[in-house]
Structure formats: structure tokens, C-alpha cells
Design brief:
By secondary structure, this protein is an alpha+beta fold. It is built from 7 helices and 4 strands, in the order βαβαββααααα. Bound molecules: glutathione (GSH). Glutathione binds next to helix 1 and helix 3.
Length: 199
């Protein structure tokens, strides 16, 4: 992307939702303001700029943009990127659906909830993930890491999610070899090394 910007991205270094925007902004000057919402000060600050109290938030001059997908549309409009097709939108919805469920399960686990206690809603979150993986597989098989057009918001979203899922041990890709292969193939894509989760 070649344009001047005055962006501030509010995020964390671990969030997959933040990472996909960092990947999208790779090559564009912006300031990353790291917020830890698990700490009181970070939580109060985040609440003051985002009523939903979630990361990421993008600030562009006097505009505050909430939600990674809306941030994408905002940047797409500004940069005159082509519109996504309905099929592409569905893929993004599927990736975000798996990501939301995995993040919820991670937070429940971190809060001490037994994820094997048979709670109906927990079971629905768990079941959604492999189902989405199967839905994504035919598309993932078409991806070629040597084609620069294939490193886009969809693949950035999937990469951020799968990497985070394995890192947090919320995801096993053993039954999904094409998704495992995807992570391997795109590990040298632009911005991936620079945005990796610090250990
Ligand atoms: N739909 C939102 C989801 C963002 C999201 O879930 N962010 C997580 C971090 S990975 C968060 O801020 N969670 C805090 C909370 O749920 O209280 C987006 O696309 O930006």
C-alpha cells in the first residue's frame, strides 16, 4: 500500500483479530498502541474508546473505527480496493465464526470453566470449529503462496486464526492436513514474521 497515513491501531500482540489488521497494514506507517484489557487501566481505556470493549480499534484522524471487518472496509474504501464477492464474504464470516468460538472457549478455560462439563452452549462452540474447517478446506486447497494475490484479507485472517489457535492450544489441525499445510506454505508471507506472537 502506498499512501501516507496517520493511523493508530489499538490492539494487543496476541489477538488474532488485531494481527489480521497488522498484516493488512504491513508496509503502511502506523502506530501500534498496545492495550492489555485484562488490566484495569487497559480495560478502562478500551471501554472509553470502544463501547463493545474489544480490540482492535483503528483511529484515523478524527475517525474511530470499531471491529476488524469494518476496519477492513474502511481501508478498502480509502484505497479503492475491489469489493469482496459474496463467496469471499462468506469465507470471512466462517473464519470469524471459528475465531469467535475459539476465543470464547479460551476465555472460559482461562476463567476456570470446565469445557468438558456438557454445557450445551460450550458444546455448540466446540462443534462449530471443525465444521468450519471442513467448509474452508476446498478453498484452502486452491491457494498458492507464490501468487501474491492469494495473500489477502481472507488468507491473513485465516493465518492469524490458525496460528493463534495452535499457539493457545485451542486447535488441533491433525484432522485438517490442508489447513496445517496452509500455515506452512504462508509462513514467509509479508508481515508474518514481524507480527508473530511473542513468546
Ligand atoms: N468482531 C470483533 C471481535 C474482536 C475480538 O473478539 N477481540 C478480542 C481480542 S482477540 C477482544 O477484544 N476480547 C475482549 C472481550 O471479549 O472482552 C472484531 O472483528 O474486531
Amino acid at each position: 500500500m502506498n499512501y501516507t497515513s496517520n493511523y493508530t491501531l489499538i490492539g494487543s500482540l496476541t489477538s488474532p483479530y488485531v494481527r489480521k489488521i497488522r498484516l493488512l497494514l504491513h508496509g503502511t506507517p502506523y502506530e501500534l498502541k498496545v492495550v492489555n484489557y485484562l488490566e484495569e487501566a487497559g480495560n478502562e481505556y478500551l471501554k472509553s474508546i470502544n463501547p463493545v470493549n474489544k480490540l482492535p480499534v483503528l483511529i484515523d484522524g478524527d475517525k474511530t473505527i470499531l471491529d476488524s471487518r469494518i476496519i477492513y472496509y474502511y481501508l478498502a474504501h480509502k484505497n479503492k480496493w475491489r469489493e469482496l464477492t459474496v463467496d469471499e464474504e462468506n469465507i470471512l464470516t466462517a473464519i470469524d465464526g471459528a475465531m469467535d468460538s475459539s476465543i470464547s472457549l479460551f476465555m472460559y478455560r482461562r476463567g476456570g470453566l470446565d469445557l468438558n462439563g456438557g454445557n450445551t452452549h460450550v458444546e455448540r462452540q466446540k462443534a462449530r470449529i471443525p465444521h468450519i474447517m471442513n467448509f474452508l478446506t476446498p478453498w484452502v486447497k486452491t491457494l498458492d503462496e507464490k501468487n501474491p494475490a492469494h495473500w489477502n484479507f481472507l488468507t491473513m485472517s485465516l493465518y492469524s486464526y490458525l496460528y493463534w489457535g495452535e499457539f493457545r492450544e485451542m486447535l488441533s489441525l491433525d484432522g485438517h492436513p490442508d489447513l496445517k499445510n496452509f500455515l506452512e506454505k504462508f509462513k514467509n508471507a509479508p508481515g508474518v514474521a514481524e507480527t508473530t506472537i511473542p513468546v
